[in-house]
Design a protein that fits this description.
By secondary structure, the protein is mainly beta. The chain is built from two helices and 16 strands. 23% of the residues are buried.
């Protein structure tokens, strides 16, 4: 594959913004992401555009292109393979772990991938499965509780709606029904348990306009 992969096949994650990856670049430059083999950046005079390679492809710094994951051209994901163990938990987050996918073809090397349990699940080292927090002992792993502590709920760039606007938080809130922070005097509410969001919703429609009243811990007509 010569040159950059045709950009129409890539996911453009963010439009131009200024970041540390490109602050020392002049003209047009190509940078691979230091933590994610499927991501690279096009830098232009200190600004960057973030791209994500198609599924099962990773970046290659030599050809400055996306190449098949696990192929002889894949130098990125192979770098960390000896240090990673299948189904191993990660200390950086109790929700993240190393997954080893089954190769599609015989002889294809298994390339470990970092995966994350869906919110609010955590990774159980014993069963090697994602499970509800009540049954998980994270030990010395960092235990995420807020939806925005999960990578899947984060985004960046000028078109990104902040996670805190898309997902409610239960940090510091008592267990049970609570007002959705930032949406006071509206029908939106959240159910909390152990500083985690276990349900988010809207007051059911009635004959009158309704809002969630934190003092009544329920929906009221206005």
């Amino acid at each position: 594959m010569n040159g950059l992969v045709i950009l129409s096949t890539l996911a453009v994650v963010s439009a131009f913004d200024v970041t540390k990856e490109c602050e020392s670049s002049t003209g047009v430059d190509w940078k691979e992401d230091p933590t994610d083999c499927s991501v690279f950046y096009l830098c232009y005079n200190g600004q960057r555009t973030k791209y994500v390679c198609p599924e099962n492809m990773v970046t290659d710094s030599d050809s400055k292109a996306c190449v098949p994951r696990g192929s002889r051209l894949d130098k990125c994901s192979k770098k960390d393979t000896p240090l990673q163990q299948c189904n191993a938990a990660l200390k950086e987050s109790c929700a993240r772990y190393i997954h080893c996918p089954v190769p599609r073809e015989l002889g294809t090397p298994v390339i470990p991938e970092v995966q994350e349990c869906p919110y609010p699940l955590l990774y159980d080292e014993d069963s090697k499965l994602c499970a509800y927090p009540d049954s998980i002992n994270c030990g010395d792993r960092i235990e995420p509780k807020d939806p925005c502590e999960y990578k899947a709920n984060q985004c960046e760039g000028p078109n990104c709606v902040p996670c805190s606007a898309r997902h409610p938080s239960c940090t510091g809130q008592p267990d049970g029904l609570n007002v959705w922070p930032g949406r006071e005097q509206t029908p939106y509410f959240v159910v909390c348990r152990g500083d985690r969001v276990i349900y988010q919703g809207l007051c059911p429609e009635g004959n009158k306009e309704r809002i969630f009243d934190p003092e009544a811990a329920g929906c009221v007509d206005i």
